[in-house]
Amino acid sequence: PYWMAINAVDEALRNLTAVGGDIERAAILDNFCWGNPTDPVQLGMLVRAVKGCHDAATGFGTPFISGKDSLNNEYRANDQRLPVIPTLLISAVSIIDNAAQTIDMSLKRPGNLLYLIGQTHNELAGSHYIEMVSSIPNTTVPHVDISTARSTMQAIAHAIRLGIIQSCHDLSEGGLAVAAAEMSLAALLGLSIDIERVPHLPDELVPLPQNIRNTILLFSESASRFLVEISPEQKEAFEDHMRAHAVNAIACIGSVTHTKRFEVRNGEQRLVDLAVSDLQAAWKGEQA
């Protein structure tokens, strides 16, 4: 509960950041939906989640201005009283001086470069991938380095307001794979990415089998990460800007393409090669 509460704050603030919001002029709200706090287990999880909210708010320098707590949420099954899954929603608001300086996640132009910002770790516990597909050994929930997260968000938001970044998407449910697919779908443009270039700690992933490494690089839900689109003309300016803000976990992992295909590889190994129209059909629930 502690780390996932911090991750919830991180995700709310990186959603703001991805459109050009300023986390230095932001506020957050909490909404707890929990079981019976007289149950020691439920109370213990609640205390740890509240501690996570406190540490995230003070670490990011972002105040909680309101919230709503809904406790004692239980249901009956097989003559037992069972608590709902403890749920925390964090909402964030920010001041934007000029709406013309905001962006969205849709890809803009073939030939533009795609950069991944932030480290990817073996952090698939509680992830969309594990819920939908299968488990991964020795994984954990996302851990947030608040100092690094804050610097990264400040740098990206500033770059958006300078007009350096053309589109941006935070990495959350489904990790890199889903973020890239959503950016492609939003504009119906193709892209090609190489997960071999994804920033990560080699010592953490090298001992693992190749298929597990691919899964982690594609679907990990490590916090404080962004996928951004940069024009080739802004490549040097963007890299210099990020380094000036002490953001070093950055790599160009691919580009927007003319092909209208969604392509993912690991070096020479092709992992995904789909028509964007097939992605769209799957998203709509149609037979691809």
Which key phrases capture this entry?
60s Ribosomal Protein L30, Chain: A, Phosphoribosyl-aminoimidazole Synthetase, Chain A, domain 2, globular, 7-stranded mixed sheet, 9 helices
Concise structural overview:
This protein is α+β, with helices and mostly antiparallel strands and 288 residues long. The protein has helices at residues 2-19, 40-60, 128-132, 146-161, 175-187, 202-205, 210-219, 235-244, 276-283; strands at 26-33, 64-70, 74-77, 80-83, 87-94, 113-117, 165-170, 190-194, 226-230, 250-257, 261-266, 269-275. The strands form three sheets. Strands 7-9-6-10-8-11-12 form a seven-stranded mixed beta sheet, with helices on both faces. Strands 2-1-5 form a three-stranded mixed beta sheet. Strands 3-4 form a two-stranded antiparallel sheet.
What does this structure look like?
With about 290 residues, the protein is an alpha+beta fold. It folds into 2 domains: about 1-100, 60s Ribosomal Protein L30, Chain: A; about 105-285, Phosphoribosyl-aminoimidazole Synthetase, Chain A, domain 2 (Alpha-Beta Complex). Helices cover about 35% and strands about 25% of the residues. It is built from 9 helices and 12 strands. The strands form 3 sheets. A 7-stranded mixed β-sheet has the order 7-9-6-10-8-11-12, with helices on both faces. A 3-stranded mixed β-sheet has the order 2-1-5. Strands 3-4 form a two-stranded antiparallel sheet. Helix 2 links the parallel strand 1 (about 25-35) and strand 2. Helix 1 (about 1-20) runs parallel beside helix 2 and helix 1 runs parallel beside helix 4. It is globular and about 60 Å long.
